[in-house]
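fyi for ur records
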Amino acid sequence: MDHNLGDQPITGIALDSNGDLYVSTDFGVDMLASGGSTWVPAGAGLPPVATYGLTIDRASRSLYAATHGRGAWRLQLP
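which gave:
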């Protein structure tokens, strides 16, 4: 099983209660689904820019991402 994210800096990490793993990088936010083996972009609405912080609000099922120069973004989690 290959969980390789490539050669990029990881600047933040968040683990959802369902086991999905989110990482912020210099190129956006990626997700590894629980039990999965492939990293994918976390959401179509998030910009592919340097992102330095991730927070999951479990009550609202939201992922918040703080980007460099593009503000903070909210992604509704499944």
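The two ends are 25 Å apart (CA to CA). thats all i got for now
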